[in-house]
Write a structure and sequence with these properties.
Blueprint lengths: L1 H20 L8 H4 L16 H24 L1
Helix pairs in contact: 1-3
């Protein structure tokens, strides 16, 4: 069981890294956060993000759950 959860954690970690790296950049650098971007807020533009953002959220939740399960098994 421990090996299975370790393998799941590894796979989810790699998938999460890949999903984060392939997402397009939403900000325009420091100028947007300092008020230079008129329509942007301090936390960035509030967009949905599409299916790639949803997939990242799902994989992040699976990563956390598998980490907790690995902790409970050990």
């Amino acid at each position: 069981m421990e090996t299975l959860f370790t393998l799941m954690l590894f796979v989810f970690a790699i998938a999460l890294i890949i999903l984060i790296l392939i997402q397009p950049d939403r900000s325009h650098g420091m100028s947007a956060s300092m008020g230079m971007g008129a329509s942007n807020t301090v936390f960035g533009v509030s967009k949905d993000g599409g299916p790639l953002a949803k997939a990242t959220e799902v994989v992040a939740v699976l990563f956390i759950v598998s980490a907790l399960l690995l902790y409970l098994v050990k």
